[in-house]
Amino acid sequence: MSETEWKLSSRDLESLYLQNEDTYPTETYLLQRQVERSILKIEHDKLRGEDRLNRDEHREYLHQSLQQLPTSYQALDASQPWLCYWIVHALDLLGDKPTEEEAKGIVEHLSSCQSPHGGFGGGYGQVAHLATTYAAVCALCIVGTPEALQVIQLDKLYNWILSLKNEDGSFRVTEQGESDVRGLYCALAVAYICGLLTHELVENCSTYISSLQSFDGGLGGEPFNEGHGGYSYCGFAALCILNEYWQATENQSVPHSLDIKRLQFWVINRQLELEGGFQGRVNKLVDSCYSFWQGGLIALIDYWIRKHSQSDQVSFKFSGEDLERYLLRYCQCRGGGFRDKPGKPRDLYHTCYALSGLSVAHQNLKESRSSLLPKINYLVNIRVERWEFAAAYFGNKNSLTS
Amino acid sequence: MHGVSSYVEPPEEDSTKFISLAKDALNRWKQQDFSSEAFSVVNRVLELNPDEYTLWNYHKRFVVDKIERVRQEDPSSFQEVIEQLFESEFNLTQRALYRHPKAYSAWQHRIFLLKVAKSSLPPTIYDNFFKRELEICAKLLDLDDRNFHGWAHRMRVGEIKGIQITREELDFVTDRIYANFSNYSAWHHRSRILPVLFGDQPEEYNRVIQEDLELVKQAIFTEPEDQSAWFYFGWLLRGAPSSHAPVSILDVDNEMLKKELSTLEELLVLEPKCKYALLMKFHLLYQFGELGNAEALLTQLQILDPLRNGYYQHLKEKMRQKS
């Protein structure tokens, strides 16, 4: 097996497309071929420059976004902490941060999202929600000052999270809200960061996570749902957090019945050859956000395997080079920001997760290189330094070392 | 969203207007203001942004309170009034979902309504709600056959109603598969309902699996590059185990596997570069102990599928350890 076969960037993408062109035309294929053509168009563009990360443009876009969000973001009125997190995390990965004034505004804003009963909601006057709580806590960790972290009312937060717990181990995302693995992940991630994990909180969580696996190995959002990148990340990252807790308290691994080998086979087959990026589910289209959900999942599985040293399991990394090609060559927008795929407009969510995915890609390159994006704590998707600061602040003894 | 068409688009508001509407609505929630004026504000916001989850809680509170109130103050017209209440609530979520087919809180609100309907209305009425629920899912799946909310909802509706999976559900899934072999969500749904439908009838289950093998092979020969059929095929060859039972009740014997091996070889004559056929063949040869031939397949795969090179390399090493 020659080494040159490994470098897909020199592979003939055109031939991959032509090989697949003569397919039975279901709607699925028509959509897939459309995406592939849009990629090839970029490949053939003689004016295309070198692949490089347009740091300055992205920074400008992010800072601008902090000042004023366009109308289309009214759809995110119930997700304001997410906007904060996407922006400050993206800036952090670019080695930048909000100005002092911006940081003050962020902290005040997030503070106004905090519910008097504990947890953070989508905005002022909204009921607290686990997803927005995760986003708010992470954003405050990234701002990274004691003043920022002091905003979090820990006792109320803990009681509120506990109040959302179901008997089967899952969590409702908000009172009377839906229960799925996002809720469980956000609850555990927040508790993990803030040093709030307890036996009571983690009871049955591992059983619930194990129940999410479908026949192909992927994890769905709820039992009986099909394998999906976002949920697979949430489920497995939550399992890793549980494992940290069990190691610290019981000095053993968390008991579970997840077939990790099968999950791994499912996820490594999510990287698409021609595009280089990841799809979220079997037979769906590539999307830059899955660079983190799927790429990060592969990295976490790799870490788990090395930690447990089970020789039966595959320790396998994906093609960081191809993922980087997808992100830098096809997903960067003029004026800054990243998009889902060619043809879509940029947005802050994809900017955040494309950059997070790029950081993962940089940890999975065949050859080492300088000027890589900073490392992330894969369990919570904030920079390692921010995690360490928060861990020290909250007096956490469980910290994940890579 | 990818290829999903929307229903009727209500007129947009500019962001300043929206912000003040949302503020107003949240205030009304805080004050528990259930006047008709309040409703029109709240519902306008939900129309524009069905992810405004706090306002769905407003509706939940209203429903619960109204049921209690009418039961006490006007029991003779309870059924009529409450049926109307549910109709208007279902309509609201339906409009929201046609516009935003993946809005979690809108789906959740329907679950809430179904549960409350079941506990407060007679079966003659709530049965209609449940029947209609499956119709709504079907319509939304017409718009986007990969909408996992729609698929999951079908399962949940059954759970709430307290019924097992039905043959009709199996027919529904079969139709979707014939409409589009690449509809992985349909194959997945099938993998969920088969063990439930036939779990306690091994002979019947075996028969259905044999039929499914023929079905999936049609898909594979039509489109050998399609992952959907291959993943399902692989599951069948493992004995179609339920995710919740580690060992299958089926007998997957060497006879059956040898038959499928010849199917794979037939396909590989037509499509020698088909990655999944090669990988499946590898697993079968490995199971039969033909390690030399198996390793050659891995080498082929490493060239055909370089993104998974490490995985195939690992399989090689694992095999060498055994021999």
Automatic annotation (TrEMBL), chain A:
Q: What does this protein do?
A: Catalyzes the transfer of a farnesyl moiety from farnesyl diphosphate to a cysteine at the fourth position from the C-terminus of several proteins. The beta subunit is responsible for peptide-binding.
Name of the featured protein = Protein farnesyltransferase subunit beta
Q: Which GO terms describe its molecular function?
A: protein farnesyltransferase activity; zinc ion binding
Task: Give the cofactor binding note.
Answer: Binds 1 zinc ion per subunit.
Give its E.C. classification number.
2.5.1.58
Any one Gene Ontology cellular component term annotated for this protein? protein farnesyltransferase complex
For this chain, the family text in UniProt reads: Belongs to the protein prenyltransferase subunit beta family.
| Quaternary structure and interacting proteins, as annotated | Heterodimer of an alpha and a beta subunit.
All copies of the Prenyltransferase alpha-alpha toroid domain together span: 53-381
State the organism of origin. Answer: Galdieria yellowstonensis
A single GO BP annotation from the record?
A: prenylation
Q: Is Hydrolase found in the keyword set? A: no
From TrEMBL, chain B:
* Alphabetic keyword roster: Prenyltransferase, Repeat, Transferase
EC class name: transferase
Q: Name one GO cellular component term.
A: Rab-protein geranylgeranyltransferase complex
Q: Which GO terms describe its biological process?
A: prenylation
UniProt catalytic activity: geranylgeranyl diphosphate + L-cysteinyl-[protein] = S-geranylgeranyl-L-cysteinyl-[protein] + diphosphate
Domain of life of the source: Eukaryota
A GO MF label? Rab geranylgeranyltransferase activity
Please describe what this protein does: Catalyzes the transfer of a geranyl-geranyl moiety from geranyl-geranyl pyrophosphate to cysteines occuring in specific C-terminal amino acid sequences.
Q: Which family does it belong to?
A: Belongs to the protein prenyltransferase subunit alpha family.
Q: What is this protein called?
A: Geranylgeranyl transferase type-2 subunit alpha
